[in-house]
TrEMBL record:
It comes from Lentzea fradiae. It holds the Pfam family NAD_binding_9. Residues 34-183 form the FAD-dependent urate hydroxylase HpyO/Asp monooxygenase CreE-like FAD/NAD(P)-binding domain. Gene3D superfamilies: FAD/NAD(P)-binding domain (3.50.50.60). This is FAD-NAD(P)-binding. InterPro entries: FAD/NAD-bd_sf (IPR036188), HpyO/CreE_NAD-binding (IPR038732), L-asp_N-monooxygenase_NS-form (IPR052189).
């Protein structure tokens, strides 16, 4: 709602919702849509708006200090050493024939097709940045002449009623507001604040949870503990080694690291004590299964559910189905019965039953070809070593085996499980709150690094630059140092630095985002038990009275429901595209199209 427009009558605000009426002279005025956040989610939303062939007259304002399309995470201004953890052929921002949303399909090139690079390569984030920037321009140009798009390279600092204040002094008035904020910073948790205070008092280095490309690592030297073994660790590993002038050479087929002398020694550990699984480097060898098969989330909605008892067994069976479908159809020599016979028995049995285990043993002779979720989750459970040196050798062998398995088409059943895992994940929005275990497990299995990053990890380990701590890692602040150890070995490390190798856990009560803070102060947004911003299934903000705001929306990893990636693998009926499509149609309805 534009308060500067003359002739507007009946303008008033309810808590959490701006209300408006049309001009009293009956003339149509230009409505406004303000989107805070200009990353790939916003570009995708604009593309879905354009796909509806709208006739509405509207002004769209996109607010983000970072380049539109790429946003903060994918901005070009970051180290060229940082790469995606997806192959170029597995990245698209366009709908295709698999899309079953209400809006029309508007196909377009994948990242590999747009760039012309090797489809199975893992591009740099700078390459992805250019693709996303192009996509934003494409979406903007696809809008009709009755819709304008203005980009404000600024930070939104406050929302009051329908007015958005920017840090450059601009004020924007919004008939409709969409918060597409992406990954957010947060105030330090009490533990992290104490560690930072300890570091300042004792002349140590402490880096709290941050997006890795934004972290100031200039003071990270000497012996440093990294807590976390996921993708944030991989980024930090790259920035603190090759980013400081080291280089890799291949000698007799093995990758070797040549230090620059500026690297710290990195002691890394986590709850699992192992890195995320490598991305697969092959395609399906058998037929692609129709998914979902056993886990259909819509059949569970509206029921009282316990995640472990009611939901996870169905999810596990679906993922196992993807695994065995590929094993039987792609590698019939590795199994002992025809697939139709196995499929009938598999369908009839609960996943967690001795009968299912017996079926697996009977049909799949090699235990390495069976799927074991508990072993995958905690590979170091119950494994101990007498010294850290013994563990270094063991974990190097573990990582080498993981890279070899994920590079060998003989094990393409892992890719079948991965595709089923994506199918499960895509159905979860709004089903129920999920504990941190599930999201961590999903990332551990599905969001691992490219295999050559793990080869680099092995080279750094052999060079003594990276040292493995083990599982159930602990950290203690003592006089003049940080101590770290694990349940895997008796060794204790004394370090002058501690780096949290993970993103901050977002919580509305601790958010560093000024817009969310301003909306929380007025009661226009609320949080669930996990600290996520509460929204209804369409993304409408829910205020402290429990009512959904009709004209203010939020999407992204900081809201309730499943956080979908803003881009996706081709031909997977990506849930983010359907979410964008639903929101685009609602926005156009509100704008009066």
């Amino acid at each position: 709602m534009c308060l500067h427009t003359r002739g507007i009558v009946g303008v008033f605000a309810l808590r959490g919702a701006a209300r408006f009426s049309l001009p009293s002279n009956g003339k149509t005025r230009m409505r406004t849509l303000v989107v805070i956040g200009g990353g790939p989610r916003t570009a995708g939303l604009l593309e879905r708006i354009a796909a509806q062939s709208p006739t509405v007259r509207a002004a769209v304002h996109v607010v983000d200090p970072h380049p539109p399309g790429a946003g903060r995470v994918w901005r070009h201004a970051q180290s060229p050493l940082l790469r995606m953890n997806s192959m170029a052929e597995d990245v698209t921002v366009f709908t295709d024939e698999s899309f079953d949303g209400e809006g029309p399909v508007r196909p377009g090139p994948s990242l590999a097709e747009w760039t012309g690079i090797d489809p199975v390569s893992f591009p740099s984030r700078q390459v992805q940045s250019r693709y996303l920037s192009w996509f934003f321009d494409h979406a903007r140009k696809s809008l009709p002449p009755t819709m304008s798009v203005t980009v404000h390279r600024a930070t939104a600092v406050e929302v009051t009623g329908n007015r958005v204040r920017l840090d450059n002094g601009e004020m924007l008035d919004a008939d409709i507001l969409v918060l597409a904020l992406g990954h957010l910073d947060a105030d330090l948790e009490p533990e992290h604040r104490k560690l930072a205070e300890h570091a300042a008092e004792h002349g140590l280095v402490y880096v709290p949870p941050l997006y890795s490309a934004d972290a100031d690592l200039s003071a990270v030297t000497g012996d440093v503990v990294l807590r976390g073994f996921g993708l944030a660790f991989i980024d930090l590993m790259v920035l603190l080694t090759e980013g400081r002038g080291g280089r890799y050479v291949r000698e007799s087929g093995q990758l070797t690291y040549v230090p620059s002398g500026a690297e710290p020694t990195l002691y890394v550990g986590s709850r699992r004590g192992v890195p995320y699984h490598s991305k697969t480097g092959y395609r399906l060898q058998g037929t692609r299964p129709k998914l979902p098969h056993f886990f259909v989330a819509d059949a569970l909605r509206g029921k009282e559910l316990d995640f472990r008892a009611d939901v996870w067994p169905l999810m596990a069976k679906e993922i196992a189905w993807g695994h065995y479908h590929e094993l039987f159809t792609g590698h019939p020599a590795l199994v002992r019965m025809p697939f139709p016979e196995f499929a009938v028995s598999f369908a009839a049995l609960p996943w967690y039953s001795e009968e299912m285990r017996e079926l697996e043993r009977l049909a799949v002779p090699d235990p390495a070809d069976r799927i074991d979720f508990e072993r995958l989750d905690r590979p170091l459970a119950g494994v101990t070593f007498g010294s850290a040196e013994e563990f270094q050798e063991y974990l190097r062998s573990y990582v080498e085996a993981d890279v070899a398995r994920r590079s060998d088409p003989r094990h393409s059943a892992d890719l079948g499980a991965f595709l089923a895992l994506l199918s499960v994940y895509g159905q979860l929005a709004g089903l129920m709150p999920f504990d941190g275990w599930w999201h961590g497990y999903f990332s551990y299995l599905a969001s691992g690094p490219p295999p050559d990053r793990l080869e680099e990890l092995l080279a750094l380990s052999r060079a003594g630059i990276v040292r493995f701590l083990g599982a159930d890692m602990w950290v203690e602040a003592v006089e003049g140092a940080f101590l770290a150890g694990s349940a895997t070995t008796p060794d204790v490390v004394r370090a002058n630095g501690l780096v949290e190798a993970r993103l901050p856990a977002h919580s509305l009560s601790r958010t560093a985002d000024p817009v969310l803070r301003s909306l929380r102060a007025t009661g226009d947004i609320t949080e669930d038990a996990a600290g996520l911003v509460r929204v209804d299934p369409l993304g409408r903000l829910i205020g402290e009275r429990g009512e959904a705001d009709p004209v203010r929306f939020a999407v992204g990893p900081y809201v309730t429901g499943t956080a979908f990636a803003a881009f996706a693998r081709p031909r997977t009926n990506a849930p983010a595209f359907k979410q964008n499509d639903r929101l685009a149609r609602e926005i156009l309805r509100l704008l009066g199209d």
